[in-house]
Write a structure and sequence with these properties.
The model has no long low-confidence stretch (mean pLDDT 88). With 117 residues, the protein is of the alpha+beta class. The protein has a domain of 77 residues. The relative contact order is 0.24. Helix 2 crosses helix 3. The protein starts with a helix and ends with a strand. The protein contains three helices and eight strands; from the N terminus they run H-E-H-E-E-E-E-E-E-H-E.
């Protein structure tokens, strides 16, 4: 590996360790109070609206199965694959809008989401 690549990988690895935090410019405001009020405002504007969606069935392709300790492919077998049943999942259609309003509300109150070390 070249030294440049090593330095680049180290920088990328360190960048992944960054933490972010809400901070106010004057440092005296209570984040918990402002956060609570902004969450209430966002929940009132965009209440949870739970929907359900059905994901289509999917095919799980063939796989090799080998007994423990098998050293050759002759002891293994290949299955034919299978169809997985359709899955149903729940989601909140208003979640993204509620999160956006929450962040906008905090920013309007003077809070900034900044990177901390």
């Amino acid at each position: 590996m070249s030294p440049r690549l090593g330095i680049l990988l180290a920088c990328l690895w360190l960048a992944g360790c960054a933490h972010y935090q809400w901070r106010h410019a004057d440092g005296t405001r209570s984040f918990d109070s402002d956060s609570y009020q902004c969450k209430q405002e966002a929940a009132k504007a965009f209440p949870p609206d739970i929907r359900q969606r059905t994901l289509p069935p999917r095919y799980i392709g063939p796989r090799w199965h080998c007994p423990p300790g098998a050293t050759t492919r002759s002891a293994c077998w290949l299955d034919s694959g299978l169809w997985d049943w359709p899955q149903t999942e729940s989601y909140d259609i208003n979640e993204a809008a509620r999160d956006d309003l929450y962040r906008s509300c905090l920013k309007a109150r003077g809070w900034a989401y900044i990177r901390t070390e």
